[in-house]
Amino acid sequence: MSEIDKLVSQALDLSEQIDYADGGIVSKTLLDEDAGTLTLFALSAGQNISEHSAPHYALAQVIEGRGEYVIDGETVSVNAGESVIMPPNVPHAVKAPEDFKMLLVMIKD
User: Candidates 3.30.470.10, 1.25.10.10, 2.60.120.10, 2.40.30.30; correct CATH number of 4-107?
Assistant: First the structure.
């Protein structure tokens, strides 16, 4: 049974589906299909995901805490319950000023 099959057709708190690692970054892929991916991340305070770009639109939904997204040099602060859409082929990075969790939704062409 895949990760996503364990979660379908029920109300769930995504923040309970992933735990922090002291001083680290944890990721958990829920779905990886041709159409896109669903990945949970838990970043400990002070951790960063270095600048990179992706060929697809991406939606980052913060589900706990606050994250900072640097998109094409501009910082966007995103709190729990808020989201940011990152455009394709534009450099972006993620910073954790505090512990935070997010769901990353990647939509492929």
Answer: 2.60.120.10
